[in-house]
Write a structure and sequence with these properties.
The complex is a heterodimer of chains A (229) and B (368). Chain A is α/β, with parallel strands linked by helices and 229 residues long. Chain A has one domain (4-226): P-loop containing nucleotide triphosphate hydrolases (Rossmann fold, 3-Layer(aba) Sandwich), CATH 3.40.50. In chain A, 30% of the residues lie in helices and 29% in strands. Chain A contains six helices and ten strands; from the N terminus they run βββαββαβαααβαβββ. Chain A has helices spanning 46-53, 76-86, 102-107, 117-130, 146-158, 176-191, and strands at 4-15, 18-30, 35-40, 61-66, 69-70, 87-90, 164-168, 195-199, 211-216, 219-226. In chain A, α4 packs across α5 and α5 packs parallel to α6. By secondary structure, chain B is α+β, with helices and mostly antiparallel strands. In chain B, α1 (2-32) packs antiparallel against α7 (227-268), α1 (2-32) runs parallel beside α9 (283-319) and α1 runs antiparallel to α10. Classes of the chains: A alpha/beta (229), B alpha+beta (368). Chains A and B meet through α2 of A and α8, α9 and α11 of B.
């Protein structure tokens, strides 16, 4: 049984008197420990699919099960708890809160956990050490480079120990050298057992993925290819 | 958030300022109350009795009534609200023959009488000995008396130690002598005709003091002379009502400011809310964040507003002409300021907080 099971997923948007099928009958499965790259042209529905996998975007029809939980049969609050437990999001533009320092940004997901303040801090520091930024814990985001900010965002996504990382164009705002470093980090995490699902435009990033899923007009295109790492 | 803080701060400080000014005016009235003279008059109970004194009718002492006695003065000191009583001035009124002319002679305790009638202006000295008298300016003119002169009252000699300057009141036509001396002179024993009382009653109903005194002196008629301060108190009550009206309007404006600021803040923070929601924050967590911020800011604004209001009221008190402005920390008003600020802060933030919590995470993330 796959960790993530997607069954005949459809997402429609209405606008200008027209109905657009952003995701159109997608079915797929993602196993534990896979590194899946979702590719496709702009508007192909890859980011929509990613947010739907993360329990943020309710489908028009179809079903998504994560760890055998049908996530869209959960209430909104239960789905929030699901995200806290299962999903770590990494966004293209990092989306760190500018008024919090690096450590505090990493601790954001822990603010709603029952851990003690000391345990939260210790956990966040461990993650910063893992991404090589423990010496910059007290810096503000604007004092960091783009690659460093992305690594903070990855540490933040990992801090709740989620089994799945969903990354939306994680290297979209980085130069190629920095992109390589970030992708190395994702690859290392994946080798440690982390399941990673990443939306990307970048051909270079595909070499880090164990599988590529291509979307065209909301549909799977060309089957699911396995890529050599 | 600056506007929220500033709006609440200005609103709370204005309300505190208006409340403090009202209180200052009341305290000022209390401090000046003795300048308005007596506000309670005690006379023997009788339907027939009609006295004319100090602008009130006092005439022909009746015979079928139980007269007031010196002991009654002590009884007034025993009432529940005795701390509110500032001056008790017993008097004996009697018509006497002074230099072949009928004159109203009043026996008083000069110490109390002088305290009660701050407006008196005396040429010479206040009588200190039993055989000294203070005469009204009309008596002086009519009988052509002068300072230090000996005058016969019912045949007993008294030295004129002081002359009252024209006061425009009936006092101008009276002769004042010591109360005990008057009682002996007119063979009245310990009898007194009336008692004037000055009570500090800005914060208690004068009717209570009247009722308590009536209970202690069942044979007396106790009347509140309220007209002396009534008009001033009426002005204060008008100011208080006006302040209340202004306060309500200001607080309503504060509600609108908080509501608009929090709504704008929620709109500006869609991205932040989207990130929180993506990380597993529940709707209730988002509400909690917004309301906690509102609580913190409104508490800060409440405290700062209170202290600002109190500071400004010190200057405002002098500006409105209060002689004594007591700028002090009143825990009740401070608590009330905090309560008003927090209730407005939380109440007006509640809808924006619900709106924030119900934001569709995908819509929020679209702004990422």
């Amino acid at each position: 049984m796959s960790l993530i099971q997607v069954m005949n997923l459809v997402k429609t948007y209405h606008g200008g008197g027209e109905t657009v099928r952003a995701v159109d009958g997608v079915s797929l499965g993602i196993d534990i420990g896979e590194f899946v790259a979702i590719t496709g042209t702009s508007g192909s529905g890859k980011s929509t699919l990613l947010t739907m996998l993360g329990g943020l975007n309710e489908p028009a029809s179809g079903r998504i099960s994560v760890d055998e939980i049908d996530i869209y049969r959960l209430s909104a609050e239960q789905r929030a708890d699901f995200r806290k437990e299962y999903i770590g999001f990494v966004f293209q533009a990092f989306h760190l809160l500018p008024y919090l320092n690096v450590l505090e940004n990493v601790m954001i997901p822990l603010a709603i956990s029952r851990l003690s303040a000391a345990a939260k801090k210790e956990k966040a520091m461990l993650l910063l050490e893992k991404v090589g930024l423990h010496d910059k814990a007290l810096r503000l985001p604007n004092e960091l480079s783009g690659g460093e900010q992305e690594r903070v965002a990855i540490a933040r996504a990992l801090v709740n120990d989620p089994p799945i990382i969903l990354a939306d164009e994680p290297t979209g705002n980085l130069d190629s050298a920095t992109s390589g470093m970030v992708m190395e980090l994702f690859s290392r995490l994946n080798k440690e057992g982390q399941t990673v699902v990443m939306v990307t435009h970048d051909e270079q990033n595909l070499s880090y993925a164990t599988r590529q899923i291509n979307l065209k007009d909301g549909r799977l295109s060309g089957g699911c290819q396995a890529a050599a790492v | 958030m600056f506007f929220l803080l500033a709006g609440l701060l200005i609103a709370v400080s204005t309300v505190v300022l208006l409340m403090s000014m009202g209180q200052t005016m009341n305290e000022d009235i209390a401090n000046k109350l003795d300048e308005y003279g007596a506000n309670i008059l005690i006379v023997p109970r009788s339907d027939e009795l009609s006295l004319s004194y100090g602008g009130m009718a006092v005439s022909g002492v009746s015979f079928d009534v139980t007269p007031l006695r010196q002991d009654d003065v002590a009884k007034i000191r025993e009432i529940k609200n005795r701390d509110n009583i500032k001056i008790i001035s017993p008097k004996l009124l009697n018509v006497a023959e002074v230099e072949q002319t009928k004159v109203m002679v009043v026996g008083v305790h000069f110490k109390e009488e002088i305290s009660l009638k701050k407006w008196w202006s005396i040429i010479g000295d206040v009588p200190e000995k039993e055989d000294e008298a203070l005469i009204g300016v009309d008596v002086k003119r009519k009988l052509q008396l002068g300072l230090g002169q000996i005058v016969l009252i019912n045949g007993t000699p008294f030295r004129v130690s002081g002359i009252l300057n024209e006061s425009g009141s009936q006092d101008d036509q009276l002769v004042f002598i010591d109360l005990e001396r008057a009682q002996r002179l007119f063979n009245k024993g310990s009898e007194i005709s009336l008692i004037e009382v000055a009570a500090l009653c800005y914060d208690c109903p004068i009717e209570d003091i009247v009722a308590q005194t009536s209970d202690k002196l069942p044979g007396a008629r106790v009347t509140a002379i309220q007209q002396t301060i009534k008009s001033k108190m009426k002005s204060i009550h008008q100011f208080e009502r006006f302040s209340l009206g202004i306060s309500v309007i200001i607080l309503f404006v504060a509600i609108l400011i908080v509501f608009t600021t929090m709504s704008a803040s929620v709109n500006e923070r869609k991205k932040e809310i989207g990130i929180f929601r993506a990380m597993g924050y529940r709707q209730s967590h988002i509400m909690q964040i917004i309301l906690q911020e509102a609580f913190f800011l409104s508490t800060l604004a409440g405290l700062a507003g209170y202290f600002l209001g109190v500071s400004v009221s010190g200057y405002a008190g002098s500006w409105i002409g209060a002689d004594q402005v007591n700028v002090h920390i009143d825990s009740t008003i401070m608590g009330l300021s905090l309560l008003i600020s927090v209730v407005i802060g939380l109440g007006a933030s509640f809808y924006p907080a619900i709106k924030a919590a119900r934001l569709d995470p995908t819509v929020s993330l679209q702004s990422l």
